[in-house]
Design brief:
Blueprint (H helix, E strand, L loop, with lengths): L5 E12 L2 E13 L15 H8 L7 E6 L2 E2 L5 H8 L17 H11 L4 H14 L18
Antiparallel strand pairs: 1-2, 1-3, 3-4
Helix pairs in contact: 3-4
Amino acid sequence: MSVPILRVEGLSCTYESSRGRVVALEDVGFELGHAARLAVVGESGAGKSTLLRCLNLLVRPSRGSVEVDGEVLTSLGERDLACARRRIGMVFQHFALLHRRTVRENVALPLELAGVTRTTIARRVDELLERVRLGDKASAYPAQLSSCR
């Protein structure tokens, strides 16, 4: 049996707010295979965003574990977690694109900042844009994309 791409076990997240202690997630668990898809739905305040932030450890869960491709992220220190995040993609609802840069330039920016060579950047950006079916939009600016209007 193959290792799931994502395994979540006993994930809980609580935090303090002006209204007191908030239990945002309680004992969440699931596994996803490599080709699986998952829809996270619920009312406002149900914990959807908290779950997503816990999955990539932008928020540390109070309890439980998050495992990506066999690596337990919740046991990693900040340096190792930063390395693991390079293999994890997340698109935020209100993503921040640089409007004076093309789609290609926006995708390339994190690689440039990481010191990746230009040749590798060009190849990787092409691969990524094709993967999400935006290869034909590489020279477009964010305002020219339908989701940015």
